[in-house]
Design brief:
ABC transporter involved in vitamin B12 uptake, BtuC; 14 helices
Amino acid sequence: MSRSSRTAIPLAAAALACVSLAALAFGTEPVSLSRALDTTTIDHVIVVTVRLPRVLLGMVAGAGLSLAGAALQALLRNPLAEPYVLGVSGGSAFGATVALLAGAATTTWLGASLVPLAALVGGLAATALVWSLASAAAGTRTTSVLLAGVVVNAIASALITFLKTLVSPAKAQELLFWLVGFLDVPSTRALAALAAYVALGAALLLRDAGRLNVLALGEDAAAHLGVEVRALELRVLLACSLVIGAIVSATGLIGFVGLVVPHVLRRLYGPDTRVIFPASLLLGGATLVACDLVSRGAFRLLHTEPPVGAVTALLGGPLFLFVLVRGRGGVVAP
């Protein structure tokens, strides 16, 4: 591990801490963090009951999206791989949409748990379909997976659009806002469940970080060095589906976080997944919290709050192009 790589995790942690404090301090209503320590003040109510749960949701969701993107990029050895592109998010969104329209999001504990479960099943189904199509297609596995992911994502989007035509306009508008991606104030139970899903998936991915480093040498070389390539692929895909399914069920579709954050870290610190994975967790959380802060800040100008998924796309797209295209206008190869 190089000396510069050792600074990646501390810097990412510092960024997460700074952004989180800013998200707690700033918003549509001015508050003081020092006064918020007094439980009798309105500042305490705003910070603890409204902003803190939303910031924690952004941290967990951003961390999971970024780590899943980093894992898929390492697995496929392609910087364009991410859950949104590979159809995992689309499949999870379709599963969650079916559950929501079926009335699974009830106030009961069992009903509330069905939405992330349906999203997980949808993500796993989409992942299995993409992998099966890629295995049967001609050409390299990476190219086939990316193309199959785009197709599966388009099919999932079409199915969701079809379902929206079968419900009332009010319900369709609610689904549309959810599918664009949003952060709201979650319940303690929902936040704890999401954190548990993401923590489990993250533990599995962090455990395989060193094996993914070996896989970068190629499948044959990795197999000769003792890596069970197919088992590794299965574990990574299952872990990513678990993480993304839980996040999509809580926040809707949020793109570009899983694409931009790992890509930027890899450009700055190299391809070592033992560094990229934990740094992606921290910087991904900071990125989504920052985008949500921008979304909340836009309320003062627009008198409405744009979905955070739109903010990540508007900010992440140009940033990714800026990182990708540099020098004399040439496109940097992966």
